[in-house]
């Protein structure tokens, strides 16, 4: 199986990349942030906490399902990378031949973008971009039309995928596979959550209207944890330390989301801004920081579990506090 994807899997894409103006490559290096884990963490949490009925019929259920879906996407990527275990392109390793006109701070930023470790197939950024933006377009169904929302999601996902090739941290096949993987995970996750819209009818058309109000993200979170568990086993067998850490994040994200959802009824109001801002900074710092500074899978698992459980359970915790405060007023 692993022989299906080899280290030398390019088709000459970097000849085109090398012909791009340096300014374009720098801009694309910034575009790749649209699918960074920290960015998607914040975006999905904000959608979950602040979504209203102007966006979808059941904002809390839609938001949690979106988070669970992206968790499944990362789990699938972790499994794929551990299974195929093929390196990134040579351009992802030192030395960096960056633009000389970038000032010091931006030069450091650019270097951090174009130097990437770990395995290269499939592209996690491409998969996450497809998974996140497509699922948001499907679940937040009240703005605009399905065609416009999906077109916007496709533009962002393809732009992220192109950026990964432009900064030479992925081959073209990596990002194309990542995009397809992200879309497949969205379809499977929504069906697992009880969304019956995505189906092929007798007319061979897909109904993208009327998001069900009874979506259940719980089994999707559990599935993300299970797939991540398989990825951890494969990574251990293949001796990939980085893969074990990524899989640990997936396990704790899935379990944390499932436990957090047990606290939620699904019809809670929006989270107050005074609570959301420190919660986002705190949980985001714990989630990203644990991965960045720790080489211990146990530390990463515990920290991520706590952060995700708080994010998912926060609407219920805020509602409970609000009810308690109202009951003690004279």
UniProtKB/TrEMBL annotation:
InterPro entries: PAP2/HPO (IPR000326), PAP2/HPO_sf (IPR036938). The chain crosses the membrane at residues 23-50, 62-84, 119-138, 150-167, 173-194, 215-237, 243-264, 271-292, 298-319. Keywords: Membrane, Transmembrane, Transmembrane helix. Residues 69-190 form the Phosphatidic acid phosphatase type 2/haloperoxidase domain. This is Membrane-associated phospholipid phosphatase. It comes from Halorubrum alkaliphilum.
